[in-house]
From TrEMBL:
Highest taxon above the source species: Bacteria
Chain positions recorded as FMN binding sites: D57, T101
Protein name per the record: Flavin-dependent oxidoreductase, luciferase family (Includes alkanesulfonate monooxygenase SsuD and methylene tetrahydromethanopterin reductase)
Segments forming domain Luciferase-like: 40-306
């Protein structure tokens, strides 16, 4: 039996992931603040039959500093709300998954739950959600509900940092649990919609979530009926043991950041161990590796593009994910090599948009198909179907009897 093909996603952010992308992009500088831009990117990804697009977001302006604004004026600052962008894209696409990012540190899970459930309804079952923690004190200052101590990423083992990270991910875990509970608070057959009898809803099939924890107290039920997927796909970005454990317990897909094939194999092993430790009973996590990609027709042309971008930025590009510079064919070979480490697929971050996205869709995807590593089209169904994830049973429904 042939192995399943790769899952392929793209991470969309502004005019690209390189800080100088806006200086070289073929798109107008104002494009990321228009709905037409996001629709065009999603449409391009869908024409290549990619599994999903993710949309970045945060509660503070972009910054090169770890815990405060940087005051720079030579890089793009500002963005549109990812969930609202996804809702705008939904009716303009038919197959591709839409996975916006939201913070769970300063937002109410009830609001997030209804928004993502609504996205799943209006997209016909193609919604996902990437919860992220907001560790920066500048983000907390926008809300005034609490103060967060400065986070020093250069000292990850500092006791204060360990406590802060632990608390943030514990809060995120509660937030996801609340959201998932609210998605289940309507059973699938709660809506009767019988005009003749005048019964629209079966109140016995609406449920209180009654969640009480350290950070949230949520009664429920949701105001939105159960999403078409039952549970929209939850994705997490993880770099270390604490987020690996969070993903193992609460997510369906995890994005990881290996530096090479050996590192990828080690990360996959650590995630599988985390799944065992937390007693995961859901299907195994779909593990996708992140790569920033800068592509061109020849290796030399790709290097020159990167050098030019770095020169415009005034510094060599750095990222939490590894960066690949070369041709689409070379990238296809690299993905084939890394896949043997146990990865289920890849989430590619285009360095410059739309240039590197079109290189992915029009050159990389065909190269992967030529190698038997990527499908030719969409099989139909929901995002869960596309990722090979079953539709979860409702936690409040009585189990079926034989």
């Amino acid at each position: 039996m042939p192995e399943p093909t790769l899952h392929l996603a793209v991470a969309l952010d502004g005019l690209g992931w390189h800080p100088a992308a806006w200086r070289l992009s073929r798109a107008p500088v104002e494009a990321p603040f228009t709905s037409r831009w996001w629709a065009s990117l999603a449409g391009e990804a869908e024409r290549a039959a990619l599994d999903l697009v993710t949309l970045e977001d945060s509660l503070d302006l972009q910054s090169v500093l770890p815990d405060r604004p940087d005051g720079r004026v030579d890089q793009v600052r500002g963005r549109l709300d990812a969930l609202l962008v996804a809702a705008r894209i939904a009716p303009l696409t038919r197959h591709i998954g839409l996975v916006p990012t939201t913070s769970v540190t300063h937002t109410e899970p009830f609001h997030v739950s209804t928004a993502v459930a609504t996205l799943d309804h209006v997209s016909g079952g193609r919604a996902g959600w990437r919860p992220r923690v907001s560790a920066r004190s500048a983000e907390a200052a926008h809300f005034g509900r609490r103060e967060l101590p400065p986070l020093d990423p250069a000292r990850p083992d500092d006791p204060a940092t360990v406590r802060l990270v632990g608390d943030l991910f514990a809060e995120a875990a509660d937030a996801v649990e609340v959201v998932r509970g609210l998605w289940d608070s309507w059973q699938d057959d709660a809506e009767i919609r019988d005009v003749a009898t005048g019964r629209f809803v079966d109140r016995e099939r609406l449920h209180y979530t009654d969640f009480t924890g350290r950070w949230f107290s949520v009664k429920g039920p949701s105001i939105v009926p159960r999403p078409p997927q039952g549970q929209p796909v939850v994705a997490a970005l993880a770099h270390a043991p604490v987020p690996y454990a969070f993903a193992a317990r609460h997510a369906d897909v995890v994005f990881v950041t290996p530096t090479d094939a050996g590192h990828a194999a080690a990360i996959v092993a650590e995630i599988r161990a985390a799944e065992e430790t937390v007693g995961r009973i859901d299907p195994p996590l779909r593990v996708l590796a992140d790569l920033v990609v800068l592509l061109d027709d020849t290796p030399g042309a790709a290097r020159r593009r990167r050098d030019h971008l770095d020169e415009l930025a005034g510094a060599a590009f750095t990222s939490d994910a590894a960066a690949f510079t070369g041709t689409p064919g070379q990238l296809a070979d690299l993905l084939a090599e890394w896949r043997r480490a146990g990865l289920d697929g890849f989430r590619l971050r285009p360095a410059v948009l739309p240039d590197d996205l079109t290189a992915i869709t029009r050159a990389l995807a065909p190269a992967l198909r030529d190698r038997g590593l990527f499908r030719a089209g969409y099989p139909g169904g929901t995002l869960r179907d596309l990722l090979g994830l079953p539709r979860p049973a409702n936690r409040y429904a009585a189990p079926a009897t034989a």
